[in-house]
């Protein structure tokens, strides 16, 4: 997507709400956002058990933080404010996160996760509206995510377009999700292997349908 036709969305990642240096993301338009780190693993969106993932969790920073003089803040309200409530998820500079985005299909859903903030957690739901294509910010020397090692004839980085769907009926904080993760790890349950806890530094994370549906069901329940 040409940068001037749609505002670029930025992402963040965090481990328990903290941002790392490995992966950073930017938002276009008038704001830039930071993305966070992710651990490196193989290509594709498959788990160790070769399960194909069709749901996702993507992290972004909802609070102001300046990087090279640019505010990288980008929360779900910023996505809502974009034209058509749509933006590109640019600035991912971690191979595993990039590989997961390359596996995303149009129409799939992703949780918008607020990271590196006072209360990290899941704020809402968005939809993948354009599958992976070249992230133009890697070639922009003025962009905080410029990568001098990436060449136009062999680009390293990709992005997808996302569209806001809705806010969660209630914000699902990391602290609550962690309680379920610990319970399910001890007694069995859908969140026992959730990437948010087993691969916490990953800013673009895969979810099984079971994980996604269970998390979605929590918005209708009282906080744990």
UniProtKB/TrEMBL annotation:
Residues 55-217 form the EVE domain. It is found in: Nucleus. Keywords: Nucleus. Residues 1-46 are annotated as: Disordered. It comes from the Eukaryota. Its main location: nucleus. Gene3D superfamilies: ph1033 like domains (3.10.590.10). The keyword Repressor does not apply. The keyword Repeat does not apply. Specifically binds 5-hydroxymethylcytosine (5hmC), suggesting that it acts as a specific reader of 5hmC. This is Thymocyte nuclear protein 1. It comes from Xenotaenia resolanae.
């Amino acid at each position: 997507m040409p940068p001037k036709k749609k505002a670029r969305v930025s992402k963040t990642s965090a481990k328990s709400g903290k941002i790392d240096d490995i992966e950073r993301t930017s938002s276009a338009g008038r704001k830039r956002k930071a993305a966070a780190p992710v651990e490196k693993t193989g290509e594709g969106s498959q788990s160790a058990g070769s399960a194909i993932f069709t749901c996702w969790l993507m992290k972004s920073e909802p609070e102001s933080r300046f990087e090279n003089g640019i505010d990288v803040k980008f929360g779900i309200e910023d996505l809502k404010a974009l034209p058509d409530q749509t933006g590109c998820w640019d600035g991912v500079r971690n191979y595993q996160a990039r590989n997961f985005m390359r596996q995303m299909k149009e129409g799939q859903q992703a949780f918008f996760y607020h990271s590196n903030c006072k209360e990290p957690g899941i704020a809402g739901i968005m939809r993948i509206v354009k599958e992976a294509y070249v992230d133009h910010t890697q070639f922009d020397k003025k962009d905080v995510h410029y990568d001098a090692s990436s060449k136009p004839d062999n680009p390293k980085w990709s992005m997808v377009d996302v569209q806001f769907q809705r806010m969660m009926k209630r914000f699902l904080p990391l602290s609550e999700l962690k309680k379920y993760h610990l319970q399910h790890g001890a007694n069995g349950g859908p969140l026992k292997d959730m990437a948010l806890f087993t691969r916490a530094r990953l800013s673009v994370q895969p979810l099984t349908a079971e994980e996604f549906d269970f998390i979605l069901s929590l918005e209708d329940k009282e906080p744990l």
